[in-house]
């Protein structure tokens, strides 16, 4: 089904498109409809209509798309005509009970008038993406930003009242008061906004948010190419039918496969090469740590999105960002503390059919380096822990070891005044904890 308007020159000025498959999906899942708007440099806008309730059983996230439209403009009248076309194409609109929208969606009353029996509510997907961008623009301290974004991920995947209150309190404590109004932190405490999303399990939330990210990003990229409306709607329809052709994963360089081996065989060989590269380059403790991380990658679903200079890697957990320049760092705790290839970096290597390179590794973990020789004793101790059977005492021992090393690092990398203050505080804590008359060597 296609509806369009012609401009004064006779060229297409607006278009609405819906395939039979799209109409079938909406007829089955009409209760909750999400409306996403994507802009492009020429000033046109693409409106994507998606079902936001239960996901269709088959296909990729693109199976959620039920209608595509490029209106003539974004006046109330133009958008009302666009929504009217959607209703004309879909008799199941009478069953729509909830409309989820971007906070910045233009002319929201026009949408409400087109669906008089449905409630219009903010979309959690759009709310969280907006909040994520705003937080990254605040130029907060690195640790504060990572803590806020990690807490936001927890809230997105488990939208409990406790998690939302925690996120709200964190923003209130770490963001300057004059900046809080633009973040709309009150949205976090609004139960009505989160009601539908809260019904999803942790796993359902992951796949729902992944579907929306993949669909909106893929279609927005096609739309932003600046084609004529005739060519644009054709390209959008082709992308809907074959989303893999321009999906983020497809942007990675293909691996040569002259033997015509199966994907399973290629994956097996890639994993073996990654393991061998770890053994060739890394010290033994580093090998043990990284192999444990890689084991998680091999047993988990990898969700990969891409930006201009970073990959978003999610391995059935909170998403983290891998620096694409050398694949040498990631925002996760393992990478930050150990400065070793984590499960997310290894997932990126595995997906791109690449192996570990020396320049991706901190020198202290490389075989034969001066830093390696200087830390050999501590590394041997760590190796003994790694090789031992795990129990509670070893867990505590490793925790104490890491904590001591982190405290030492913080004491070394600060100015004299800060050092004196931190050392004095540590001195008082040690003396008061173990005994006021016993001087403990720090």
UniProtKB/TrEMBL annotation:
Q: List every stretch annotated Disordered.
A: 242-267
UniProtKB keywords: Metal-binding, Zinc, Zinc-finger
Q: What is this protein called?
A: ZSWM1 protein
Specify the species.
Answer: Dromas ardeola
Is this entry keyworded Zinc-finger?
Answer: yes
Task: Locate the transmembrane regions by residue number.
Answer: none
Q: Name one GO molecular function term.
A: zinc ion binding
Taxonomically, the superkingdom here is Eukaryota
Question: Which gene codes for it?
Answer: Zswim1
The residue ranges of the SWIM-type domain are 320-353
For whether the record's keyword set contains Metal-binding, the answer is yes
């Amino acid at each position: 089904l296609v509806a369009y308007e012609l401009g004064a020159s006779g060229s297409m000025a607006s278009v609405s498109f819906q395939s039979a498959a799209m109409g079938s999906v909406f007829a089955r899942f009409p209760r909750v409809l999400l409306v996403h708007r994507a802009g492009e440099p020429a000033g046109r806008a693409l409106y994507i209509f998606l079902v936001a309730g239960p996901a269709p059983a088959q296909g990729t996230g693109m199976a959620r798309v039920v209608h595509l439209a490029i209106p003539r403009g974004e006046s109330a009248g133009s958008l009302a005509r666009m929504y009217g076309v959607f209703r004309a194409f879909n008799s199941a609109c009478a069953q729509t009970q909830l409309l989820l929208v971007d906070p910045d969606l233009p002319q929201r009353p026009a949408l409400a008038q087109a669906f008089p029996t449905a409630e219009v509510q903010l979309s959690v997907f759009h709310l969280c993406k907006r909040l994520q961008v705003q937080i990254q623009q605040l130029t907060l301290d690195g640790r504060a930003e990572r803590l806020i974004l990690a807490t936001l991920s927890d809230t997105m995947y488990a939208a409990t009242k406790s998690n939302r209150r925690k996120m709200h309190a964190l923003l209130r404590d770490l963001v300057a008061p004059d900046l809080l109004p633009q973040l709309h932190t009150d949205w976090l405490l609004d139960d009505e906004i989160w009601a539908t999303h809260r019904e999803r399990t942790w796993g359902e939330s992951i796949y729902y948010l992944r579907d929306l990210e993949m669909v909106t990003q893929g279609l927005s990229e096609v739309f932003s190419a600046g084609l004529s409306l005739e060519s644009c709607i054709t390209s959008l329809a082709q992308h809907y039918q074959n989303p893999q052709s321009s999906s983020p994963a497809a942007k990675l360089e293909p691996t040569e496969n002259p033997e015509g081996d199966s994907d399973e065989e290629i994956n097996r060989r890639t994993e073996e090469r990654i393991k061998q590269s770890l053994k060739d380059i890394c010290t033994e403790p580093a090998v043990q740590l990284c192999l444990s991380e890689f084991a998680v990658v091999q047993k988990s679903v990898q969700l990969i999105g891409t930006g201009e200079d970073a990959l978003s890697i999610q391995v059935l957990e909170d998403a983290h960002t891998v620096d694409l320049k050398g694949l040498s760092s990631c925002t996760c705790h393992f990478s930050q503390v150990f400065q070793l290839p984590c499960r997310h970096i290894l997932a990126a290597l595995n997906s791109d059919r690449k192996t570990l390179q020396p320049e991706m590794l901190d020198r202290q973990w490389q075989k034969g380096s001066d830093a390696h020789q200087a830390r050999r004793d501590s590394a041997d101790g760590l190796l003994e822990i790694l090789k031992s059977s795990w129990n509670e005492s070893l867990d505590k021992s490793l925790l104490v070891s890491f904590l001591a090393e982190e405290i030492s690092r913080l004491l070394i990398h600060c100015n004299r005044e800060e050092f004196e203050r931190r050392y004095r505080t540590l001195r008082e804590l040690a003396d008061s904890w173990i005994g006021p008359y016993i001087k403990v060597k720090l």
